[in-house]
Amino acid sequence: MLRGIQRDVCAHCECPIVDPTVQVVHGALTYCCANCSEASEATGSGSDPKALRHGEDALRCAHCGVPIVHEQTMEARGDDAFCCSNCAAMADSMAEHGAGAMGGPGGSARA
User: Fold this and answer.
1) Could you give the CA distance from residue 32 to residue 17 in angstroms, rounded to a whole number?
2) pTM of the predicted model, to two decimals?
3) In this structure, are strands 24-26 and 29-31 parallel, antiparallel, or unpaired?
């Protein structure tokens, strides 16, 4: 199956889409948010030679690394910024599974 054809997974970062209110659909491709949609579609500079530059200090998603250019969908968890609620939920899920694998809060994987 082609990446992005699956409607419940982002075509850019492959994050599960659990919050459809921020998703963007372009034909057969579905993105978790406008930030991933823009990053995926920014393949050339066209007439603007600076179109693909976001600066070294650009705010980026802690999950997928996409530059956050649409702050309306941004979410934060502590010091981490996420491009949307879908990437934030993915990070929350990974943290929960990571804590469980480590023996819970304060646990250790070492014997």
Assistant:
1) 6
2) 0.70
3) antiparallel
Gap between the Cα atoms of 39 and 41, Å rounded? 6
Nearest to 65 by CA among 15, 17, 21: 15
CA nearest to 8, candidates 21, 39, 41, 20? 20
Gap between the Cα atoms of 35 and 57, Å rounded:
16
SS3 at position 73 = helix
Residue-wise pLDDT tens digits, 33-76 = 999 998 887 655 555 545 555 555 678 999 999 999 888 999 99
Q: How far apart are CA 82 and CA 17, in angstroms?
A: 14
Q: Read off φ and ψ for residue 31, nearest 5 degrees.
A: -115, 150
